[in-house]
Design a protein that fits this description.
Structural class: alpha/beta
Shape: globular
Helix content: 25-40%
Length: 556
Amino acid sequence: MKNGKTGAGLAVGFFLLALSAGAFAQVVPPAVKKAEASIDAEKIRAHVKFLSDDLLEGRYPGLRGGDLAAKYIATQFALDGLKPGGDDGTYLQWINFVGMKVVPEQTSFALAPQKGNAIDLKFADDYTVQNEKLTPSVNIDAPIVFVGYGVTAPEFGWNDYAGVDVKGKVILCIVGDPPSNDPKFFGGKALTYYGRWTYKFEQAARMGAVGALIIHRTDLASYGWDVVRNSNTSEKTYLRDDKMPPLEAASWIQLDVARKLFAASDLNIDTEMTAAGKRGFKAVELPVRLKAHIESTVRRFQSPNVVGILPGTKPAPDQAVMYTAHYDHLGFVPGMKGDNIYNGAADNGTGCGILLEMARAWASMTVRPPHDVIFAAVTAEEQGLLGSEYLGQHPPVPTGQIALDVNYDMILPIGIPREINVNGAQRTSFYPVVQATAKRFGLTIVPDPRPEAGGYYRSDHFSLSRVGIPAFSVDTGSLYEGHDRAWGEAQEEDYIEHRYHNFSDNYSPSMDFRGDAKLARFGMDLGWEAVSAPSTIRWNAGDEFEAARKASLQAK
């Protein structure tokens, strides 16, 4: 311990000598580089091979396979000598969940206009719905209010709820952001969180609505109705103790259903949608009511995050670094013939393999970091980032004492990348370090190829961002050593089309984990620089997470 403290002090001193005015250091001590060099692609392979084995039955939260995966990861953390960061001196941070599954044959949904016959809707084909109150049944008979995009964004001078009371009513809104070509106004072509369906439901509940109907449009959502249907007709998982207000009906409807709804209100849907995207839009209560009965099965269960900590040498207040990756996947289909297991080798066996190998490498260093390094394998990502949401609300150290979260999710094991995507890093004061580090690793930073899809809001780093922690995921571009860009794009397209969220996302001996190892070393470099930085990392001025960061720093 004494030698570790002395080494850490020398390392930090060496680090600080490399500082330039107004910038973070770009030199990593030899002891850290030695540990990075020990990162082994074959060790990552071994973790992925086990975690995606049929034995783990697709790692579904709250079932045997998910618990086996959590215990495996906890055992690896213990072997590394990490300090437990979970409940009661263990590595496991247990979370209470509730699984809700609509019973279609006992559920009814109808649009009842003041004039004319009711329009009965068919579950899955016309609409999906979930009861966020987590009760077996709920009845709704309430007027529908069209609130445009359902957005309240004071920083953009935009409030779709201005001048209307939606308490006890059902809101109708469009998926996505108000249209913009200005990057400073709703992100331009890039999707902001205001455009995400999760925000629409959250804001509707905050405004007192009992239900929300999101109008699906493939061009705005960046995915088809089949994705909505598949994601919302099986069991949906919720945090049992979530403090967010719930909706009785969190629903999507097909565009054709919305056309019928507007027609029943003597309104033209195209005219109303165009008006909703312009300043001056006013919400309007439609002469139509939603009459619904929603029957659901309710399953209460627990599933853990797995948290290990490499303690730093300095006392609190800390400036810890966190690494995250989700270990859960989609489980299996009981009774189905043939391959019925969603093994999730790439998604997210690879992220877990990287996390575990990084934990081993960090723990093997002959010097200790000045601040804590936290490793968190989170559950229920596939259910809506729920494990990381809970982690953000119940971190092992105060959020204001966490400098950075680096997340790994689905790093395809197909070779050594020459490009890297770190979407979100550019929004922080740490970005110059990320740029310089990428350059040292021979990695060209490429932008998000589909900013309109809002990918930043779809992985676990987002949950940490929401509580103020600067966070982003490390991903690859499309260019790999020994291949042209077309090859990389073809590999990605083939995976998405044939294996993503499918029974065929299996481990194969042909997988090449050298790129996963390289990105682990890259992340380790970033982590050392963050824990050794002379000042805390912040979100850029005006960023949507800046206020949360300031609040967390004041609270620490």
